[in-house]
Amino acid sequence: MCDDANYQWRIARYPIGNVQPEDFHWHVEEIPEPKNGEVLLKTHYLGLAPVMRFYMMGQNPSGETALKIGNVIHGRGVAQIVKSRHPDWKEGMMVQGQMGWQTYKVSAMTPQEKFFVMPNYGPNNKLPAALGAGVLGMTGLSAHAGLFATGSPKKGDKMLLSGAAGGVGSMVSQLAANVVGCDVVGMAGGTEKCDFIKKHGCRAAIDYKNEDIAAAIDAHLPSGIDLYFDNVGGETLQAALERLRMHSRIVLCGSISEYTRRDPFSLSNYTRLRRTDSMMKGFFVYNHLHNWEQVMDDLAGWIIDGKLKAVQDFVHGFEHMPRALANLYYGNNMGVQCCNVRGEPEIWN
């Protein structure tokens, strides 16, 4: 990555359907200088998530200011403070937070940007800084909060997990199986991904691209579902609702199968919850920020103990960010989709 300028991806037009190359504008400007109370951040890694398409459409699903044509695209990343005129943030610190799609950023480190210092973990007092772009970042908090705070998993639960090869799903499968002791059946698209999820916590895999989903659920979970962790919504959620055991739980994490539909999906069988005294509950990751330090310590400890394999799918080069975002909707990623902008820092204070 060249350090001669600040490179940015901005919104060229609002997307219709999946993002297209014409939706993005490549912009180059001078590296900014921090003023009193500000720092200059140098981007090392950026994370990608399906929600970024909504940002590009001018929506604000996470509460940030809605973007307009010409704005830098929202996104979280891992950066190093290379200049500081802020009393609380020192040069050399590695942080993660709202960087946007750019290679440098000047920031006053406001609460709205949700910056966190990245501590050194693990053997030799360090896990890679790259993990802050996903597994030890908002994706990790989503997986932890969705499973533990929302799903209330119990040992022996018969669990169905959609989107099991994705960023959140590939973590939830391992936490449910290896930390809690659930019996996890995962769903993914294609043979390669199904093989992948069976190595990451899932007893069995359902290939939603090539199998009848309802029949496959019945085959792998004949007695029904105690816990369904939903990353896709749509017809898969509808099928799960027909197969609930007593006092089961459904966690609403994502609904990627619905994001590019022109007509909203209508869930017609939610009343199945009543018949089994079951619960369907959503969560918003930012409502769990107060648990950040404890969750990151939990996840780092499970990585070090071997209970959680950190899976991040990297595209190398900031110029490839648009294609990486499109790949999320094509289902081409395994694990957390990230961009390696500069790699690991030489010195980490």
Care to describe what's here?
The chain is α/β, with parallel strands linked by helices and 349 residues long. It folds into two domains: 6-133 and 310-340, Medium-chain alcohol dehydrogenases, catalytic domain (Quinone Oxidoreductase, Chain A, domain 1, Alpha-Beta Complex); 138-286, Rossmann fold. It is 24% helix and 24% strand. The protein has nine helices and 15 strands. Strands 3, 4, 5, 6, 7, 14 and 15 form a seven-stranded mixed beta sheet that branches. The chain has a six-stranded parallel beta sheet with strand order 10-9-8-11-12-13, with helices on both faces. The longest helix has 14 residues, at 167-180. InterPro entries: ADH-like_C, ADH_N_2, GroES-like_sf, MDR_fam, NAD(P)-bd_dom_sf. Keywords: Oxidoreductase. It holds the Pfam family ADH_zinc_N. Residues 8-109 form the Oxidoreductase N-terminal domain.
CATH topology of the largest domain: Quinone Oxidoreductase, Chain A, domain 1
Question: Oligomeric state of the chains?
Answer: single chain
Put simply, the count of helices is: 9
CATH architecture descriptor text of the largest domain? Alpha-Beta Complex
Strands, count: 15
Largest sheet: 7 strands, mixed
User: Strand portion, in percent?
Assistant: 15-25%
Tell me the name of the CATH class of the largest domain.
Alpha Beta
Low-confidence stretches: none
What count of structural domains? 2
Taken in chain order, the helices and strands follow as EEEHEEEEHEHEHEHEHEHEHEHE
Our measurement of the CA-to-CA distance between the termini, rounded to an integer number of angstroms, reads 22 Å
- Mean pLDDT across every amino acid position: 94
Structural class: alpha/beta
Please give the share of residues in helix. 10-25%
CATH superfamily of the largest domain: Medium-chain alcohol dehydrogenases, catalytic domain
The best one-word shape is globular
